[in-house]
Specification:
It comes from Candidatus Anaerobiospirillum pullicola. The chain contains twelve helices and ten strands. It is α+β, with helices and mostly antiparallel strands and 337 residues long. It is elongated, with a radius of gyration of 24 Å.
């Protein structure tokens, strides 16, 4: 018996037991005594948390015996602490290469509780590729891994490096860092600041991350889904968001009209493609006057206020034409990263 296959079965069983307990707190669930109770008794069980973050014991202690499958791919379990339950996209068993195992839930009409009925392999927690029921996988049956679980494992393992840019990894030597920033940090936090001494590759890494998210189905970056700007002391709100800009008039005089800045223009492009991810890079952010450049956008770019609930009125809202994408509603950010 392949020991990795047995590890994988234990890992899936723990994952299901964990999120079942987090959701229902049912101590009678089949996997509770084997997987959850020992950690509760030891006082090291954490219901929610990002297993990948430094200092977090969430996955290190709970799945230490089953999480290493070689090739540098360490599995983590993430239960997003910003959500109230486990029935959401913020809960997954995640591999470094961007592939995840998510749970498919079903509501029990009698108990009104949600229970996991199947597991789904997906890329970046979004696009489902393979699904199998708990029964078909033989989870919690106390037996050796069956053929269906072998197939599930084989598919999961075959995804290793399938969405990794090998050339980038060979050239930069920071494939693991790129994966952590792309799959974990930016995906969950939406806004990310890279810090470090000059010349250490912060801008280069940011561009790699942007290309990671902006790839089409052929794994080729789409330029319109990425934009970059460099801040400097004279950069302001009119450059970044919108403002009055000088224009030549037909009578030869100079007038002023409201024009979109680079960020608002980029947001309009993102709004026109709601099914795609967009990445905006700000280089040398510390050189600009943040208050002067962002203005009221500080509110709108907060991850918890993105979308229609984060609507704001910009300083020049009264000059925005009626047919503009942001007319009478202020900045409305799409699902852009």
């Amino acid at each position: 018996m392949d020991p990795k296959l047995e590890q994988f079965k234990h890992l899936l069983e723990y994952f299901v037991a964990h999120i079942e307990y987090v959701t229902n707190h049912d101590t009678n669930f089949v996997g509770y005594n084997q997987y959850i109770k020992p950690h509760i008794d030891a006082g090291d069980f954490q219901e929610k948390g990002f297993g990948h973050k430094a200092g977090s014991s969430f996955s290190k202690k709970t799945i230490a015996a089953w999480n290493d499958f070689g090739n540098g791919n360490v599995v983590n379990i993430t239960v997003d602490s910003r959500f109230q339950g486990a029935i959401n996209r913020g809960v997954f068993l995640h591999w470094w290469n961007g592939y995840s195992v998510k749970a498919n839930w079903k509501l029990d009409a009698d108990t009104r509780e949600h229970h996991v009925i199947s597991l789904i392999i997906c890329f970046k927690n979004d696009s489902a590729e393979k699904e199998a029921s708990l029964e078909a996988l033989g989870l919690f049956d106390g037996k050796e891994p069956n053929d269906e679980l072998r197939k599930f494992w084989a598919y999961y393992e075959s995804r290793d490096d399938s969405h990794t840019d090998d050339k980038v990894n060979e050239d930069s030597g920071n494939g693991a860092l790129l994966s952590e920033v792309s799959d974990y940090l930016l995906w969950h936090n939406k806004n990310l600041i890279l810090t470090g001494a000059p010349g250490t590759g912060k801008t280069y890494l940011a561009k790699q991350v942007a290309e990671w998210y902006a790839c089409n189905e052929d794994d080729e970056p789409e330029d319109f889904r990425m934009a970059q700007v460099q801040f400097h002391p004279s950069y302001d709100y009119t450059d970044f968001v919108e403002g009055l800009r000088p224009v030549s008039q037909t009578n030869g005089q100079i007038g002023f009209e409201r024009q979109d800045g680079i960020f608002k223009t980029f947001c309009k492009t993102a709004l026109a493609h709601p099914d795609k991810l967009f990445v905006f890079i700000i280089d040398e952010i510390n050189r600009g006057d943040i208050n002067k450049i962002f203005g009221e956008l500080f509110y709108a770019i907060d991850p918890s206020y993105r979308g229609t609930k984060g609507r704001i009125r910009t300083q020049y809202q009264n000059l925005v034409p009626a047919d503009d994408a942001f007319a009478d509603m202020g900045i409305k950010l799409s699902k852009s990263a």
